[in-house]
Amino acid sequence: MKPIPFFKMSGSGNDFIIIDNRAAVVPEDRLERLVVGACRRKMSVGADGLILIEPSDRVDFRWRFFNADGSLPDMCGNGARCAARFAFIHGIADRQMAFDTLAGTIEATVGEHGVRIRMTDPARLKTGFPLDLDGRTVMVGSVNTGVPHVVTVVDDIEAVDVVRTGRLIRFHPDFAPDGTNANFVADGPGGRLLIRTYERGVEDETLACGTGNVAAALILAHDRGLASPVSLTTRSGGQLTVHFTMKGDRCTDVFLEGDARVIYRGELWEEAWLT
Ligand SMILES: N[C@@H](CCC[C@H](N)C(=O)O)C(=O)O
């Protein structure tokens, strides 16, 4: 099998393998093995997710987004910014574009120093309810920002055992069967929020989660009456900005803005993923 060209990109520390699959270069019959194999840290390229750019007769392109474990979630905010910049660099779309995801159509604008995407309208925003975590009651909020998220406010972001507590939330029976992502938020300098995320489908803490940042911004805006935009600092130190219109618990015109960096361009050889 011919090696497959790819870009390795990072959205605020959330990293992705992105492949132009418009000519169907990826073997469909071994797709999950390719995703899981290529996303393995140390043994292969390593990534939080893999994105296939594919043709569309409706919008500039459609994508398939895969978590590192091969699961297929509806949306990825950091990945969407990276896919948009990938498409612009490869001449697949202009700076203003639209592409289809399982969550719906995403509009994106590729700027000189970052990418801004219009999120699908959030759903089921709930704040200030108790969750029993191993006998400990924690107050949380939840919202679907393309994928499901739970947000917990903490005093010290460094003191959180993100993997242990994140797993309790991620697999909590209240969110079965699909589970949820788990975000921990604290107040940071200059009115910014500090955020850490345990990510479903990576099954670990990631250095950033775009839809999680949007979830945290909307839940805290709802609880604290914060005005748009809300700025957040991710675990990588990356900066994300969330713009929104909020009336009661209804949010519209939600935009996520942040970086989308090309790390390198490579070729994926079969031996790098065929386990
Ligand atoms: N990191 C992504 C979220 C990707 C999907 C998530 N892992 C899930 O399965 O819900 C983002 O930037 O939004």
What topology does this entry show?
Layout: E1 4-11, E2 14-20, H1 31-39, E3 49-54, E4 61-67, H2 77-89, E5 96-101, E6 104-110, E7 115-118, E8 123-133, E9 136-144, E10 148-153, H3 162-170, E11 181-187, E12 193-199, E13 204-206, H4 210-224, E14 230-233, E15 239-247, E16 250-258, E17 261-268
Parallel strand pairs: 2-3, 4-5, 10-11, 12-14
Antiparallel strand pairs: 1-2, 1-17, 3-4, 5-6, 6-7, 7-16, 8-9, 9-10, 11-12, 12-13, 14-15, 15-16
Describe the protein's architecture and organization.
Catalyzes the stereoinversion of LL-2,6-diaminopimelate (L,L-DAP) to meso-diaminopimelate (meso-DAP), a precursor of L-lysine and an essential component of the bacterial peptidoglycan. Pfam families: DAP_epimerase. Keywords: Amino-acid biosynthesis, Cytoplasm, Isomerase, Lysine biosynthesis. The protein has 275 residues and is of the alpha+beta class. The protein has 2 domains: 123 residues, Diaminopimelate Epimerase, Chain A, domain 1 (Roll); 136 residues, Roll (Diaminopimelate Epimerase, Chain A, domain 1). Helices cover 17% and strands 43% of the residues. It has a 17-stranded mixed beta sheet that branches. Helix 1 links the parallel strand 2 and strand 3. The mean pLDDT is 97. The site of the ligand N[C@@H](CCC[C@H](N)C(=O)O)C(=O)O has 16 residues, from helix 2 and helix 4.
